Amino acid sequence: MASLTRPVTGLDLGSHSLKVVELRQGFRTPAAARAYESALDGRGTSEVLRELVATYDLETSGAVAAVRSSRVSVRTMDFPTSSRRSLAQAVPLAIGDRLPFDAAEVVIDWTLVSRERGHARVLAAIAPRAEISELVESLNEGGCDPRVVDCEGLVLANLAATFDLQGTRILADLGHSKSTFCLLRDGQPLGSHALLCAGRKISEALAEDRGLDLEAAERLKCEVGVLAPGESQLSPRVAAVIDRIANELVRFLSSSDTSADPSIEEITLMGGTALLEGIEGFLETRTGVRVRRLGLPPEEAGLGLVAAGSPVLFGPAVALALRGSGSGVSHLNFRRDEFSRQIDLAGYFRDFGSTAALCALLALLALSNLGIHAYLDSKRATLIEDQVQELYQSAVSAETAAPNPVASLRSALHDAKDRAEFLGVYRGNLSALDLLTEISKRISPELDLVFEELSIDRQTIRIRVFTESFEAADRLGAELSEFGPFSQTRIGSIETDKRSGRKKFDVTISLVEDRA
């Protein structure tokens, strides 16, 4: 069964050693990490990476690497729009107009620094396409296809997601051949800078001052430090190297955008050279700013990230790993256009094969359940249709089944109503013929009556009658009323016809139900 966490690997590609931090991203925070370091010893990055992947069975599908900051140009730009869609079009155009060479030779990406109504500030990074191509090719040769390629300086800002790095500060990665700086304000990167001066320059200066070869000076630096026993002052050449790093830190700070918060709280050190004994004190004296090594993160924020190695040594690799997790704060990725990562569907099937098989089985069961319900519903509908057919045939005495028995029953009902209208079926379930028969039966031949008009609707019978005497009218009303449905018989006013001299009157019979 595939794990519910996914692996994320940060690759710190140094010039002296290759450092790897592998963490597992869960639903909330990254889980405990593994950390490895392997010295290059004159070998290529691809060879050492391939060896690490094979030795420690590293998962590289979620790998994150970075381009050297010395090869990336970072600019802060303001735009009169806060729409991401508009910015995606405006940033490359604005940068392309300022480039002294063809924009097709670089890869441009940007991240949002701040956004207000109708205004946005972005941090744009420009890297040569040749540099991206060379890096991706080198990693591919080492058995790794990185998901993200960020900027080496700006990616350090991801440490703010886990470590306590509030306020305005510089994150300084002091490596072997270069020093990389990131200006951080409240967890957001504002700029980066690189200086080709770091631990190797200190070793070279120490070798010249002490009259040692480079290897012996390197060993002395790591084991004893840059101060000999009993010394309190740095040797001139070593002091010059540290002064150069300190001056570059001050220059980077003064050239960066700190207008909103001109005070800088701390310079936070990491990287192999940051482990040099007394380095923080030397830099603090020369910059006038508090200098501290990267400490441990809060326990609740992910202390397990540094359980496998020193946060100072593996800090940049941790930052790269955090960039690939859901906790990252930087969003640059130079893997775009022709460098876009191809999705390895076979890898997904390998990683989630059992999960996919279980999902397929559940889908099959769901379809089977749906099919069974559909079959049962069809059988039930067929049974009901057969019963309706039988009801229809028995009701209308049909010999053959109707294509649509419900519609046929409805049509037959309308036909019956029409026939009832035509035949005259009235209240009391009496036809017109029944009514006439009853009226004839109730009229005695002795009564000299002549019916001139007779009309029948559903509830009322109206008759115009001529007679010779008033007594005939009274007897007619009494005779008709004896029949239950004719119990509400009324005799109208009696008048004398001027032409014949006979008496005429109207008889109104309101039909009622015969409850007897």
Tell me about this structure.
Among the domains are: 357-423; 425-510, General secretion pathway protein M, EpsM (Gyrase A, domain 2, 2-Layer Sandwich). The chain contains 14 helices and 20 strands. The protein is 39% helix and 24% strand. The longest helix is centred in the C-terminal third of the chain and has 44 residues, at 353-396. It has helices spanning 45-56, 84-98, 129-141, 199-210, 214-223, 236-255, 279-287, 299-302, 311-324, 345-351, 353-396, 405-423, 432-442, 470-481; strands at 6-13, 17-25, 34-39, 63-67, 73-79, 106-116, 119-128, 148-151, 168-174, 179-185, 188-195, 266-270, 291-293, 425-426, 430-431, 449-456, 460-467, 488-491, 495-496, 503-510. The strands form five sheets. A five-stranded mixed β-sheet has the order 3-2-1-4-8. The two termini are 83 Å apart. It is of the alpha+beta class and 516 residues long.
